[in-house]
From TrEMBL:
Pathway, per record: Amino-acid biosynthesis; L-histidine biosynthesis; L-histidine from 5-phospho-alpha-D-ribose 1-diphosphate: step 7/9
Protein keywords: Amino-acid biosynthesis, Aminotransferase, Histidine biosynthesis, Pyridoxal phosphate, Transferase
Entry's Gene Ontology BP terms: L-histidine biosynthetic process
Cofactor(s) demanded: pyridoxal 5'-phosphate
EC number: 2.6.1.9
Protein name: Histidinol-phosphate aminotransferase
């Protein structure tokens, strides 16, 4: 049994899951085994939606594996990385017994999925220091071991804090938690970061899993295509726990087209533009007297503390700019998160916040 498989709930390790009509390898030219319609819907010009889809569309899976630098068998496609987070929690955590480690302030879905599964949530807060919010990896390891955690969620670059965790530190944590917990590295914003992906650590650390998504840099949030990259045997188990047909054909087709060489070249250009706009917006905001702090960011957003966050939020709204209010999150009682937009959109943000200065 592979290392991470030992950590999966015992009752699910050889769970067969639902046997769909699609999972049988049969041959024929008249398919009457899935109660599908014999005719395409009038709106389905290509007749691509009449039959249930391949549970893991092969061409897309291959392309994503190539993009993320892993073997096809190491990659599971789901409905956004949200689905992969949920699958991991359900497959690893026995309700009322096992725990997950999260590092607030952080993306809320890890705790939501844990709550839904009845898993305990162990919080190891990010530490707000001179370089920004940093994960205390020593405290994370100790809390995971002491608290019986099966999963440790690391968000890098971290949403909303913006900081990234060095690969070498992730490797040390994975080694320390070998046989104890799966370290899940959420790289939803990885394309905007300077460091390499944690998928490069997978060969050496079997208790590591990496989340990627097409929702951010690839601009396909509505297509709901996320990937989990991990040990092949673990992927196999999770696939059996997943819904029978998680990837709608129109979404798979759009995603594959969105990963063509030409589309990828444009995506990379836009990532570079976001990175340069991030520098420009950070510099423009940092000098405003109403701004207390702009955190350095490796993502496509900036976390900003204000003297009066309510006034900043209202001023931006009045200018038609909607940003994310972070004030309910721990340690962020005066903070807003501003996504990096187009240069024109960022100009609007700067102009609105300069106007706030004048009114103050
Ligand atoms: C850190 C992080 N992980 C995962 C997700 C979920 O992304 P998706 O389900 O669209 O792939 C988000 C979405 O905002 C996020 O910020």
């Amino acid at each position: 049994m592979s290392v991470p498989l030992n950590l999966v709930r015992e009752d699910l390790r050889d769970f067969a899951g639902y046997k769909s009509a699609r999972s049988e390898t049969l041959h024929g030219d008249i398919w009457l085994n899935a109660n599908e319609s014999a005719w395409a819907n009038p709106a389905d010009a290509q007749a691509s939606c009449r039959r249930y889809p391949d549970p893991q569309p092969q061409a897309l899976r291959g392309r994503l594996a190539q993009l993320y630098g892993c073997a096809t068998e190491q990659l599971l496609i789901g409905r956004g990385s949200d689905e992969a987070i949920d699958l991991l929690v359900r497959a690893f955590c026995n309700p009322d017994r096992d725990a997950v480690v999260v590092t607030p302030p952080v993306f809320g879905m890890y705790a939501v999925c844990a709550r839904l599964q009845g898993a305990r949530i162990i919080e190891v807060p990010l530490v707000d220091g001179e370089t920004g919010f940093v994960a205390d990896l020593e405290a994370i390891a100790e809390a995971a071991i002491a608290g019986g955690a099966k999963l440790v969620f690391l968000c890098t670059p971290s949403n909303p804090a913006g900081s990234a965790i060095a690969l070498a530190d992730i490797a040390v944590l994975a080694r320390r938690l070998d046989g104890v917990a799966l370290v899940v590295v959420d790289e939803a914003y990885g394309e905007f970061a300077d460091s390499a992906s944690a998928t490069t650590l997978l060969a050496a650390h079997a208790n590591l899993a990496v989340l990627r998504t097409l929702s951010k840099a690839h601009a396909l949030a509505a297509a709901r295509i996320g990937s989990l990259v991990a040990d092949a045997q673990l992927i196999d188990v999770l696939r059996r726990c997943q819904a029978p047909y998680p990837v709608p054909t129109p979404c798979a087709e759009l995603a594959l087209a969105g990963l063509s060489d030409a589309a990828l070249a444009q995506t990379r250009q836009r990532v570079e533009l976001v990175k340069s706009e991030r520098v420009r917006l950070q510099a423009a905001l940092a000098v405003l007297p109403e701004v207390v702090r702009v955190y350095p960011s490796q993502g496509n957003y900036l976390l900003v503390r204000f003297r009066d966050a309510e006034a900043a939020f209202r001023t931006l709204l009045a200018a038609g700019v909607v940003v994310r209010d972070q004030r309910a999150a721990p340690q962020l009682e005066d903070a807003l998160r501003i996504t990096i937009g187009s240069p024109e959109q960022n100009d609007r943000v700067i102009a609105a916040l300069r106007a706030l200065e004048m009114a103050a």
